[in-house]
């Protein structure tokens, strides 16, 4: 019985250490892959979202019955806190974020250019 409890405690501690290091892992992986611009933004967004699911932020938001903008805000803060606050200080580049959105929508050519231009202008307004 004591052995089982010791193993359970050890696995919990190792899991907690892994979650704290996840944000650094996302940045490290992006650097290893030599990602930049929209590709890096998109990768980090997905990687950090996956980390949010792993660190319990999604479960906490569901428990609090959050939805929409309140859930988005809560998840952003929860993930930043879990990453040690580094994500809260970094401000994303609006042009890169807009380019990532255009890529998600599979826009190309003039449609992509127009979308990115309007999206960037809207981001600058507020």
From TrEMBL:
The lineage of its organism: Bacteria, Pseudomonadati, Pseudomonadota, Betaproteobacteria, Burkholderiales. It comes from the Bacteria. This is PsiF repeat-containing protein. Keywords: Signal. Residues 1-23 form the signal peptide.
């Amino acid at each position: 019985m004591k052995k089982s409890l010791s193993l359970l405690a050890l696995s919990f501690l190792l899991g907690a250490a892994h979650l704290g290091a996840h944000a650094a892992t996302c940045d490290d992986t992006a650097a290893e892959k030599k990602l930049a611009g929209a590709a890096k933004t998109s990768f980090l967004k997905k990687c950090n979202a996956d980390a949010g699911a792993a660190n319990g932020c999604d479960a906490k938001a569901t428990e609090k019955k959050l939805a929409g903008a309140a859930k988005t805000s809560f998840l952003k803060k929860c993930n930043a806190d879990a990453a040690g606050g580094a994500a809260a200080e970094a401000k994303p580049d609006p042009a890169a974020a807009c380019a990532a959105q255009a890529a998600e929508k599979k826009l190309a050519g003039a449609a992509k250019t127009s979308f990115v231009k309007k999206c960037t202008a809207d981001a600058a307004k507020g």
